[in-house]
Amino acid sequence: MKTVHKSAKLANVCYDIRGPIMDAAKQMEEDGHKIIKLNIGNLAVFGFDAPEEIQQDMIRNLPTSAGYSDSKGIFAARKAVMHETQRQGIKGVTLDDIYLGNGASELIVMATNALLDNGDEVLLPAPDYPLWTAAASLSGGTPVHYTCDEANGWMPDLEDIRAKITPRTKGIVVINPNNPTGALYSKELLQSIVEIAREHGLVIFADEVYDKVLYDDVVHVPMASLSTDVLTLTFNSLSKAYRSCGYRAGWLVVSGDKKPARDYIEGLNMLSNMRLCANVPGQWAVQTALGGHQSIDELVQAGGRLRVQRDLAHELITAIPGVSCVKPQAALYMFPRLDPKIYPIKDDQQFFLEVLQETKVMLVQGTGFNWPEPDHFRIVFLPHEADLREAIRRLAVFLEKARVRFGTN
Q1: Binning pLDDT at 50, 70 and 90, where does residue 385 land?
Q2: Distance CA 17, CA 282 (A)
Q3: Which Enzyme Commission numbers does its entry carry (predicted)?
Q4: What is the pLDDT of residue 390?
Q5: Nearest to 238 by CA among 181, 190, 279, 298
Q6: Edge to edge, what strands does the sheet with 250-255 contain?
Q7: E strands along 81-168, which residues?
Q8: Element spanning 263, H or E
């Protein structure tokens, strides 16, 4: 029979958060092993329940949710998002500037597809949330990664951004708060990126999914609030702050000067219409979530479960010889470094596959987040404290054996 090949468009598409290591973990689970999963921010499976009022609103509206909605989303949800932009100080947003999607993920793919032609470039952070790089590649574009400086708290390197802009550069992605590092960017840094975008006519893609998952009284500045002229697309969702990953409810807000972008916005509308609409039951949760009690605040404040587990994970992981980590200010992750002099790893995917096989702990290697060196990994600190302690204890034992193997103990 003739061999059926996947599309060549997938040649540079990678999403290792659900990649070979997860495939191996599934097989191990089928064989009867219990895996401690520190690989994905799926809050509900770790006992972080969606707020009850969100659940009840979806249930009440199910009888009227069987039909398609407007392709951009139901009125109540878009109006709630519009009010949220006003609260954030983002000017000039109307209902027509808001798109509801099946999570922010669908909207990221839609936005890059609508913008990029073959060979167009988009700037992305390194490390990044790998869906952005995959979406840019799938759209026919070329992802170009700018460096986030670990020695400077994982802040984007402005000079590196400037150096990587070419005549083919059409946009810049800013993930703030950042996944995978947990870094939060200052207003001054964001203003500098806005100025670079203004100077070079770039579209800003602002991924702000973790904007309410903040620790130590830090404050998030919405990027779109810093200009009225630079075209900015802001992405957010119910998945993290509202612990509703499975509801697949996200939104995209277009702000800034929209007149020069009429053709691009027409492209967004075309793609929005093609998928008919987003999941309607999930859309009914948006108004209640944004307008109601922000229960995430109790989880991130002193004594809250997320704050406690962040502190615990950071303490335990940095106690391992040769492991350092910038303490995250936001989000659900940290991105520890394995000192290459102590852990001279050549293939980090293979290394963390061995971690899984020996310890039954699932992590994601740093190169899976488009970090160029095999010396980092991402840890999710969502499991209950006992599981978190046990997982990091097992990792510490594995790394001790690795030091013996490498002759660096």
Answers
A1: very high
A2: 24
A3: 2.6.1.2
A4: 95
A5: 279
A6: 98-101, 250-255, 232-237, 203-207, 169-175, 121-126, 142-149, 155-156
A7: 98-101, 121-126, 142-149, 155-156
A8: helix 262-274
Say if residue 63 is preceded by a cis peptide, omega within 30 of 0: no
pLDDT tens track for 296-355? 999 999 999 999 999 999 999 999 999 999 999 999 999 999 999 999 999 999 999 999
| Location of structure tokens 């600190």 | 381
The dihedral through the CA atoms of 138, 42, 296, 283 has a sign that is positive
Residue 33 CA, distance from chain mean position: 29
Task: Record the tokens describing residue 96, joined without a space.
Answer: 């027509």
201-219: average pLDDT: 97
Between residues 75 and 47, which one has the greater pLDDT? Answer: 75
Which pair of tokens denotes residue 26?
Answer: 């599934």
In angstroms, the CA 95 to CA 128 distance is 30
Pairing of strands 142-149, 203-207: unpaired
Q: What is the pTM of this model?
A: 0.94
* Token pair in block for residue 8: 């060549």
Q: CA nearest 343: which of 318, 314, 365, 321?
A: 321
Phi, psi at residue 297, to the nearest 5°? -60, -40
- Please state the length of the chain: 409
